[in-house]
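Recap from last week: sequence in, structure out.
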Amino acid sequence: MRCVAALTILIGLSACGRPDIEALRVNELGEARSAFLSNISAIQARDTEAYLSHYLQSPNFIQASGDTVHRGFLTFAAERRASQSWPDTLAAGDPVLVWLAPGVVYGVYPYQVTQEGEVSSGWSERILVKAGGGWVIAVTSVMPRIAPD
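Predicted structure tokens:
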């Protein structure tokens, strides 16, 4: 009887010790969505420091656009602080988020930007990671829509 009781306790502890992956996935997608939307709001508000606070402050931060890839937060932040250039408007579509693993979410959204009378559109991607209790963007890229010839 003692063995059955001990086994029952072990099974109960084992079940309690396993993470509820679905609950974790849902929770992290919600948190990442909030961070994602806050990043877009910072762009629309032209708030440099709020904008930069959404990015991984590490040499491993990646920014890709067109045919270039830049690595490192410090250069990214210095360039953003030195520039007064912001879109006149940014219309961002609803982001599509995919939970990749605990603490890692991929997101992509369609955008349309007007800047100095020029309209461009495409897709913007982010990989968000949970760091220090919050979500930050570790990888960002822009894929402009190419107009047909």
